[in-house]
Every structure is written in structure tokens, then in C-alpha cells.
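re: ur question from yesterday

yeah so i grabbed the chain u mentioned. its 227 aa long if i counted rite. heres the sequnce exactly as i have it in my notes:
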Amino acid sequence: MSLSRLIILLFPTGRVEYVTHARGERTALCDLLDRLGPDAPTLCAGWTTSDLVTHLVVRERRPDAMPGIALKPLAGYTASVQRRMKAGHPYPELVRLARRPGGVYGLLPALDEAVNTLELFVHHEDVRRAQPSWEPRELPADLDLLIWKRVAAGARLMLRKAPVGVVLHRLGGGVTLGGPRGGARVEVTGRAGELLMFCFGRQSHARVDLTGDPGDIGRLREASLGV
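ran it thru and got these C-alpha cells back, copy pasting raw so excuse formatting
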């Protein structure tokens, strides 16, 4: 965890609050969800803002349903839990629940930072970039570097379905590889947050430059990327 972002707030009640990048993204996302209401679009196919916030709540507060987020054979159960959660809680209540880390993440701020920073960043951008006239944010230098380190470490996983080799170039410094190890390559250049969105399957909403064979670029843009 970046020490420059670990701020300890001691409230009059004696409660200690840790402010990390994950908490910052969580707060900004929930503020935006409150402003937009339950029916705004997101970049997650078929999901409105109410679906997205329900996903966040289920992911953190229903450990029985978490495996279905990643494992297709269990996805039906997870979807049913999410439907019941959405039907049983008013939208403002769901946003309130999402504002604070749930389950083990609420007890261990360092784990919340390690596991949820990228998840919350991407979902924050899923909401931001589905709205008209969005523009990329200027990220704090330490968050930009943290995102790049995670992208570099996870590129092979996120780009495992890429149809061609991928060379990621971070503006500001840094290169990493993903996709097939041999054959044609496409070079993707952008800031760390944009490279993350690209690798998470949001290619059409990532502000990046692509260099390579036009056919390879087209196939990479349409590929199913992400974890």
C-alpha cells in the first residue's frame, strides 16, 4: 500500500478510518451513483447503475455468491442472488451499503486496497464513461503508478484471450507484454488507467493509441479481454 495514501482519521467517537485509493474510488463511485439514480447506463452490457451497485454489494457481502462471478457453472446462482438483492433493497440503500467495505474488506483496509482498488476504479469508469461528454481523469501520480504495477503484473491474465501479441506502453514509462508469445503484435500506448480499461475489456472506451496491422488491431479491439 502506498504510504502517501494511507491516512488515518480519528473521529470524535474514537473510530479509526483508513483512507486508501480503494476507499477514494469507492466514495467517488457512490457519489456518482447517488447523483445519477438507478436507471443510468453503464459500460457493463445490460446493466444499469442499479445492477452495478447490486453487483458490488453481492460481491462483498454474499460470499456464497462470489464464486459465480468468475465461474460460469455457478453464475446462475449468483445471478439469482443479485436479483433478490436488487428487489429487496431500495436503490439508495444499496448505494449506502456499497459505500463501506463489506465482509472481510471492512475489517482489513490493506486487503480492501489490494483486492478492490482496480475493481472499483474500473466500475467507477464504467459509470463515468457511459455518460455523455466524459473525459479521462487526471490521476494522482501514486495511483497511476499503482495501476501500472497491477497492469504489468496481470497483463498475461487479462490479455490471455487476445488474438495477437500485445505490447503495452505506459505514457510516463513502462512496457509489458501480453497475449500470444509468438507472431504478430499490436502496440497499445496510453496512460495507466487507459491501459487498464483496455485490458479489462473496455477497448472502445479506452483512450489509447494502437499501432500494428489494421486487421490485427481490429481483431484486438473486438476480443473478449479481462479477468
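noticed a couple things. The chain has two domains: 3-128, 142-222. also The longest strand covers residues 165-170.
anyway ttyl
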